[in-house]
Structures are given as structure tokens and as C-alpha cells.
Amino acid sequence: MTPIAITGIDCRLPGADGPDALWEMLVRGRDAIGPVPASRWAGGPPAGVPSRGGFVDDLDAFDHAFFGIAPAEAAAMDPQQRMAAQCAWRALEDGGVRPPDLAGGRTGVFLGVMGGEWTWRLADPRAVTPALGTGAGHGMIAGRLSYLLDLRGPSMAVDTACSSSLVAVHLACTSLALGECDLAIAGGVNAILTPALHVFYARAGLAAPDGRCKPFSAGADGIGRGEGVAMVVLRRLDDALAAGAPVYAVIRGGAVGQDGRSNGLTAPSRGAQREVIAAACDRAGVRPADVGVVEAHGTGTVLGDMIEASALGDLRAGSRDRPCLIGSVKGNIGHCEGAAGAAGLVKLALSLHHRLLPPSPHARTENGALRLASRGLRLAKAPVRLGPDALVGGVSAFGLGGTNAHLVLEAAPRRERPRPRPRPGGQGTPGRGGVFTLSADGPEGLRRNLAAQHRRLARYEDGDPAALCRASNRVKTGLAHRFAAPVTDHRELLAVLASAADGTGPLTGAASFGAPGGAGRAEPAIGLVLPGQGAQYPGMTAALYRTSARYRAHLDAADEALRPHVGLSVRDLILDGDGRIHRTAYAQPGLFAVEYALGRTLMDLGPEPAFLLGHSVGEFAAACLAGALSLPGAARLVGARGRIMEELPRDGAMLGLRWSRSRAAAFLDGFDGAEGPRGSGAAGVSRASGGEAAVCVAAVNGPRDVVLAGERRVLDRLRAMLPARDVLPLDTVAHAFHSPLMRPAAERFAEVARTVGHAPPAIPVFSTVLGGPLGEVPLDAGYWTGQITAPVLFGPAIATALATGPTHVVEAGPRPTLTTLIRRMGRDRAPVLLNACAGPGGTAGGTAGGIVCDDLLEVAAALYRAGADPDWDVLHPDDPPPPYRLAPYEFSTEHRFSTQVGTVLDRPRERPDPPPESGPAPAPAPIRAAEAACADDPHAAAVRAALAAVCGHSPDRIAAAASLHADLGLDSVMFQQLARELEERLPGRPAVPVRALLAGGDTVAGLTAHLRTRPATMREAT
């Protein structure tokens, strides 16, 4: 048989909400048997039946809003459907799968179900509604799960009585082996909704008076019932290992058989049990004697225990010297019937995972009549460490009607857990950084789950933050309300989670997009800006180069392209912290290499930029990233540009001023470069006595932000004339860039520029030569030659770009430069400004600690919070699969729905049926209040009241902007009900066809407006 990996587990069993809680209870040898909850059965347990059993807490709680299910529909759903939906989601997360990623794929659902008491509600005609039709029935439990997650693989509910869930797992393994599905959710669910089976077991002489199963014990006296849900996520082992999925244990083989005609329909058969176990071992490729531990069916009936021990003993012949350990989870939680086999499977998988078999409750005095020792069996009375010879196990489930199942498991191969690398100076665990992500369906859900993660991660004394972040990126990123925080230390991560979850302040680092449930989602629009000369510094991005494989690859590619034109490795120059990086011949290619590598890394991270804008030499990186220049072509241009400019006389300078462009032009018109203020020639240019331009406006960086360029002696004199408050800080340069003094360089550069081809950009480019969109202007030799002497019109260009409505602007440069200019512009509706690197004063430029650039992480976090789904592997492309399992999703328990079968008090309609021949009954008070509030708009009142009646929502929750599907949970059946409700509430109008409702759009306001303007004609109604 194809080996099948158990990659995820979740359960909700008596006394154990989740596999961690179950394992703790098992290891401690406790049971969770208690009295029947007072709210469970009307009138309590009947006389003569056990009044105790294994019951889960809060069976009536269901987070219907999380799944987009209306309250009326949730009230009509079998509690087994509710439990299965939440358990499946958590099991998938535990298996390292983001549930939304499965939509449309070949994922199978195989659920064992025995109890069908909820269908008894259909016997009461007053209770029958469309929602109850889909809320009851075995098949709908599996179908509902496939529907909620949009799964396209096989989907089935299996009922073979007490073996149902183990048979379901066997069918899932077979389906995976045949290639019918690529991932499977399998398990079982059971809810004790009535005392019917209590009565049956008692009258058949099968019930334990105290409600406890005591498997293989001298005190065994019958069955104690239990309830709950247990599910596993299954994948072919090769697929699981290739995907880096965690593995609890491996299913090697299984078999299903039948007792046939034995001494009674409900009586077990020793031979049939022996045959199915032997068949499972044969398919698994192991000898029965090699099985070191068996999770037995173990109901605790005298006959059942005897038959099972005998069947196992028959298979252990010749191996008495190495007894097989046996036990049964039923001693802890009771007999969970349809979920019993899955509960036993979970126990065995956890035992193999932890290499430990928990003790069996009630095992201190084993039943001597079973002769366990002579049969090569041993009942675990205390926790037993599983050695290498006990890492193959079996699990059995035998059905009341005779259908038997057995699976053979083995422990998963051990994986080396990466050891934390020491932080320099011995300051604890480092941790390369990452972005810890979490998502939920609302702010309260986010706080609740942040607290759950904090509780789980606090158990790791010194966790690897990068691995924890990778785990969160893989699993916890699919919902509308999002949290993301860059972290580089485990203690820092715990502090961030605690402060976000404590409820004392806003959710720092959290945001939401779209409507609840993800409706109306829109990804952020990102502008990428690239700075010019002056942003460089020795060692820029050195830490990022060491820790980011993706950035390293892109910088290496740029360096290789530049090397023939620069004469050395600009990469090595940068990483060595060489001061020559400030020389123009190296500054320009160095900046280009860094900006190209940062831009490519950001574009790999996603989403694609809405526009690109480069300042001066930054335009070359922008053109290359946009596809207008090839990397070799751009490298040739930049290398030549820097070299040619370096050879110019070093007598130029630049001066930044807090002036507008018009003020600077007027000043220069009246300034004589030789002697001071006096008349001059062309506007905005001051001329020396020889007629050459002495000073000009070289850059317009904002409304009150200009840069002058010209001869150093002239600018020194001009600076002395101006008040200090007018002067902006500007790095010292050796040349008057973007001035007529650069014409000699432009003439020489033109020869090189004509040798480089170009193409139309694939991403919109805003030109700082044109001061606006590039449009149809080609990025050819003429453009690049003219750019050398033309002023940089960054201010006009970025203003035009910002008018297109980007949500974020990211600077792909070695330090904040252009974002500082944008911030100085003081725009009312500025986008979020982000920097890929912090600069020499931040961790991005530091060399200690080996930490990923904080600012690149913050960019990823900010974009995720805004609705993007970054490719998180860009931050950790070469890292092994994360070794951690995060806490599963914690659902709300705020909303409660009846679990009693014999009542119709929770009927989904808010309006009672009218008494016979008495006319329509008045609407309930909440709906009357809603109608009164909208009395001036009868259509709005009718829509809200009708929706409240159909969906079960409180009218005050039915906001105008609410989505009919995502927020209110309407489906096609409910639209039919809504049409009828509207007909009653809009008297005098023709019937409202469903097509008219669908034409109104997906919001309450849209539907209301459509009905208000819809022609009231009988022709349309027909």
C-alpha cells in the first residue's frame, strides 16, 4: 500500500479540546466522564439508564459568522456539522495548510458518522424548513464541509456503526493511493443528542452502570458512551516530505472486513477480527509479531474484551518474549461510537510521535481471565517509553453490525531540528528575522487568536523566530483581518503578541481589508521610487546581502553585468565598506546595482508595482525594472555615465534651498554669478561674465524644495548671502549635476547611448525629465543624453504619480531619501511611505547580529496588512520547513444554538406561523422597531425586516453596506424565502422574482435601491 502521512490532527473530545489537551489527559491517565449536562436532554436521563458519560463542553457553541453562515441556518444544522467544520479547519492548520488554498482543488472528505438523531426533527412538520433539509442527514456533514472549503475531491459520510471513522480513514488512504485526491480530511464525529442509545445499551445489557469503559480491566462491566470529533489530514508520504509538511505518523496499510454470520448480529467474531488484522499487516508489509503497540477497540464489555484479546493473541503466537502493548482511549473519554476509531487513531499517532504509550485507566487490576501475558499482550499501567522495536502500531475499530477495520502505523522518520545560532556576544537566540502573521474574521477574533498564539509560543523557551514566522506565513494568512509584525527575537515576538492581544489598546500592526469574509478585497497599489546619487554609503545593504538569498542573487547579477564597464566588482566595493563608493565612477553603478537588486526583490515579494519613478541615476534602475532596458544594456549605460562624469573637472557644487521653483528662477534672473545681484539672461539661469551658465535650477523636489547647481565659487558666494533657514542639508558633491556644465559629459555619453537598445516599458514609468508620465516617449539615446543636463523634476513627477492613487510608496534605495522628500511635501492624502532599507544608522546597514533588514520585513508586513499576499519564500527561500506547529484557530463561543432534538424553540424564522384562520401574526418587536426606524422608506424597512426573518440576524446588524452573501450568509434557497418575505412586506406590488433580487447586487443597499426603482408591472412578475 502507498504510505500515507498523517500531517495534521485536531479533536474535540471529552475533557480535551485539541490534541495537546488530549495528550496531557492521556499521559496523566485521567478520564473525562461526568454527568449528562443539564441542558442536553429535556427532562434529563430516563430512569434505569446511566446518568454519566463523556460529554464535550459547549456543544451548543458555533462560530457561524466565521464560515459565513446565517444564524437561522446555523440553528438548523446538526451539531455534528458544526463540530466537523471547526475541527477540519484546525486540523488543516495543524498540518501546515492554509485552508483557503484548497479551494477548487482535489481534497477529499471522508467522515465516519453513526448518530443521526438530528434527523428526527424532520418528523415534526412544524419544524421543517429549507435550512433543516440541509442541516440534517449523514451525507450533509461531509457535503457541508466540502461546500464550505470549496473542495472538489471525493466527499462521503460513512456509517458502519462503531467502526465508521476508521473505515472512513481507510477509504481516504485508498483514495489517495489511487490518485482520486491529493489531500484528504478524514475522521469521525458523534453527538449524544438524545438518550436513545443509552436506553438501547442498558436494555441490551451492554451499558456500564457508572458510564465508564474499563477496557481489559477486572472491573469491566460494559460500555460508557462518549461524544466528540476527531480528524486527521492525510497526504501521500512522498508528497508530504516534498512539501516539507510535518508528519505525526505514517499509515502503512489497512483492511476492512465483516463478521458475517456469527452468534448474533451485534456479537463480535474472534476469527473475523483476526483475519482483518492479519490482512492489514500483510498490506503494510509487516508481520503481526512486529507490531509493538495496539490501540484496541476495547469497549470494556466482558465478551468484547475476551474476543479481542483472543484474536490478538492468535496473531502473537511465537512472540511471547516481546509482549505487545495494548490500550484503549475509551477508558479516558468513553465510547465515541462514530468517532471512536478516529479517536483511537489520534491516540496512536500521538503515541508514535512522542515515542510514549500513555497508561490505560482502570488497568491496575487487569482481567485475569483474558490471560494477556500468555497471549503476548501487556496492558500499560504506567507511561511506557517506546523503543525502536515498538515504533510500529495498529489500531482497531469493530462495528456493532460486524464491520471491522484495522490500520497499521509506524513512527515518522526523525527530522533534525535546526539548532539556534548564537547571537554575537552570547545574548541568547538570534534569530534571523521574519514577519509573524496572523489573520481572523474580525478584530475580536484577531485578539483571541493572538492570545492563543502567545500561550502556545510561551512554551518554547527559546524558539527560532524566523522558523516561527515561516510557520505563520504558511498557515495564518488567509482571512480579512490581519496582523503582521517584523520580529528578530523570540522574547520580542512574545512581547508583541502579548501587547496586541491584551485588549488595553489598539491592535498595533493590524489592519483589515474588504468586507467581513473577504468580500470586496482589493490589493494595495504600490509605487516604487529609486533615489539618485547621494543616497550611497559604504557597506550599504551588507547585512541584507548576507541574510537574503534572493537579494544576494539579484545583486550578484547586477555586479556581473556592471563589471566589464566599471573595471571592478561594485558588489565587493559595497560589502567591503570601501569609501571609494562616494566617487561618481562607483557611486552611480553601485546605486544602480543596489536599487536593481532591491527592486527585483520587492517585485518578487509582490505585488507588481503600479508605477516606477527614478530620481536622476535612479531612472536607469526604474527603466530596467520596467523592462525598457535589459540588465546588460542598463549596466553599460550606467557604467559609462559614471566614468565619464568622474573625468570632468571637480569644480562644481549643488545647493538645496527651501524655495519654490518660481522663487529660485526669479532670484537667479537677478543674480550675476561674477559680482552678485544684477540682470542676467535666460530665466532661472545666472551667467558668469564669460557668458557660460554659472548657476541653474538642477532639481525640483517639491513645492518648496529645489536644488541649484553650478560653479563651486559662485554657489559658495550665494550660500553666504542666504539665511540659514533657507538652506537644505545636502551631501557634498564634486560636480554640478543636471546643469549646462555637464554638456561635455553628455556629448561623450551620447556615443555609448546609441549602442544600447530599448523597449516600451511593461510597467508605467513617471519621468523626472518630463515631470510626469513617460507616455509614448521612448527611453532611447536622446532621452538618456538629455537627462544629463536637464533638471530633475521629481516634485512634479511624484505629484502626478500620487494623483493616480497609490496606497503605498516604497523606496528601493539604501536609505530613506525620496520618501523624506515626499513627506516634506505635506500632502493631505499621502500614501503609506515605506523604505526597503533604514540607512547607515539602522539595522539595514549594520554588520552585527546577522539580522535580516528590518525595513524589508516591515515592507512585507505593511503590504500584507493592506491586503496583499506576499510571496513569503522571498524572505526565506533556502530555509528548511518550519519545525513548529502553531496554535490552531480559536473560534468564538459567543453564539449558541440549541442541541435538543425535541424542541422547535430555535426555529430559524423570527415570525411565528399565524394561528389558523386568524390572519398574519404581528412581527416580533425587533423587526417592528426596524420597520419603524425606516418608516420613511418602506423599501428599506421591508428589505431589513425580510432579511432578519430569513437569516436570523438582529435587524441592527443588517447594515446598508452588508454583503448578502459574505456578511449575511444568503444562499440560493434563502433567496427564494426572501422573495416570499418581500411579497408579504410590499403589499400591492406584484410578486418579486428571484432574478430581480439577484439583479440588485450583493449589498443590502443595492437590493433596496433596485427594488425601489424596479417597475411594478405584472408582466415582469410573470
Automatic annotation (TrEMBL):
Single GO MF descriptor: 3-oxoacyl-[acyl-carrier-protein] synthase activity
Biological process per Gene Ontology, one example term: fatty acid biosynthetic process
The Ketosynthase family 3 (KS3) domain, residue ranges: 1-411
Gly residues compositional bias, start-end: 425-434
CDD domains given in the database record: PKS (cd00833)
Gene3D superfamilies given in the database record: 3.30.70.3290, 3.40.47.10, ACP-like, Malonyl-Coenzyme A Acyl Carrier Protein, domain 2
Pfam families named in the record: Acyl_transf_1 (PF00698), ketoacyl-synt (PF00109), Ketoacyl-synt_C (PF02801), PP-binding (PF00550)
Transmembrane segments: none
Biased composition (Pro residues): 915-925
Xref: InterPro entries: Ac_transferase_dom_sf, ACP-like_sf, Acyl_transferase_dom, Acyl_Trfase/lysoPLipase, Ketoacyl_synth_AS, Ketoacyl_synth_C, Ketoacyl_synth_N, Malonyl_transacylase_ACP-bd
Domain Carrier as annotated: residue spans: 937-1015
Region Disordered: start-end pairs: 412-442, 899-925
Keywords: Phosphopantetheine, Phosphoprotein, Transferase
Protein name: Acyl transferase domain-containing protein
Taxonomic classification: Bacteria, Bacillati, Actinomycetota, Actinomycetes, Streptosporangiales
